[in-house]
Amino acid sequence: MPLLKPEEEAIDAVLCDLMYFLSLVTGNSDMLGTELLESLLKMAPTKEEEHKLKDFKDESPFKLGPAEKFLRALLDIPFAFKRVDAMLYIANFDSEVEYLRRSFETLEVACGELRNSRMFLKLLEAVLKTGNRMNVGTNRGDAHAFKLDTLLKLVDVKGTDGKTTLLHFVVQEIIRYEGSRVSAANQNLKVEKNQQLTFQDDVEYRKLGLQVVSGLSGELSHVKKAAAMDSDVLSSEVSKLASGISKIAEVIKLSEDIPLKDSIHKFAESMNAFLKKAEEEILRIQGQEGVAFSLVRELTEYFHGNSAKEEAHPFRIFMVVRDFLSILDGVCKDVGKINERSICSSIRPMPMNPAVPPVFPGFSVRQPDGSSDVEGSP
């Protein structure tokens, strides 16, 4: 059963048509919205179709359908479809600006997170020192830096048990010191490098330290968001936004070329008001783009030494860190389970087999004085 009677449907159609015409005459894109403006733009006739509609005689034996009649009436409005195109740009403008503004803010925050994360820098230092200790006596045993890509390879280096990876070892090395640091900070105590710990203290410190290391993923949340972005897409969107302003300038120029009428005056007034606001917004967005991309380049040089090599994929640094954080989360869970098993084993001592080799042969986990290489790092 139809919701409207035939005469009500006719009235509704007329009102809709009036709304379309009034919106196009005044330049008020809010009256129609993005979807309706897109639909109108798709209806734009070709030059040939436009001529046929304008030349159509009412006394012709052929009758125009409702869509053709609507188009014919629409074409009576000067440069109607150029108006539609300009109004669609206006309707989308605020959401596009907001999307770009949030994207560039995310990039700026992500750069700050990565560069200022004490825990991330601590992990990098621990990895560097561990690598140098493993490569003592080789030409790679005195490295001062490494590329972040190396972080993804830490799980490829496995111990003799085939399960424990180098990243597991690094995490185990760092959590004890981090736990003692947090505990000391909570009690306003100084961390003693060679402090002798009870078994209970050691268990507590490792739990606290593991919480600190596993919290890195949440600490670098904007880095993970930045990893999902595409620099080419962002640059393209800024370019489209800037070039689209020409549509507004064009319809304003066309309005000036038509004898002044109230309807043309209202439309031009609406377009001019938007143009001033839009030009200022675009300049702000372009400035934000420049700042954000500059920060990403500086960050890449800070960690990789040469951002020129990453020009094809400027956001790759975020992708590497995101993938590493995913790996780190898994390793932290493993380390938590390993430590739980160690606690149980300590409570119920198992007979030790002196013939069992260490997981990483020739690699001393603790120094003779009980200190760790990563403990004294900043």
Kindly list the characteristics that best describe this protein:
disordered N terminus; elongated; mainly alpha; 378 residues
Note down, in words, how this protein is organized.
By secondary structure, the chain is mostly helical. The chain has a domain at 118-219 and 323-347. The protein has helices at residues 6-26, 33-42, 47-55, 66-74, 80-116, 118-134, 166-186, 199-214, 216-219, 221-227, 231-256, 262-304, 316-347. Residues 1-354 form the FH2 domain.
Question: Approximately how much beta-strand content do the residues carry?
Answer: under 5%
Sequence of secondary-structure elements? HHHHHHHHHHHHH
So what's the overall shape? Answer: elongated
Total number of β-strand segments?
Answer: 0
Low-pLDDT regions: 1-15, 350-359, 362-378
Counting helices, strands and paired strands, the structural category is mainly alpha
Number of helices: 13
Helix proportion of residues, in percent? 55-70%
The N- to C-terminal Cα distance equals 76 Å
The main sheet comes to: none
Q: What is the radius of gyration computed over CA atoms, rounded to a whole number of angstroms?
A: 33 Å
Average pLDDT, rounded to a whole number, is 77
Task: Characterize this entry briefly.
The chain has 378 residues and is mainly alpha-helical.
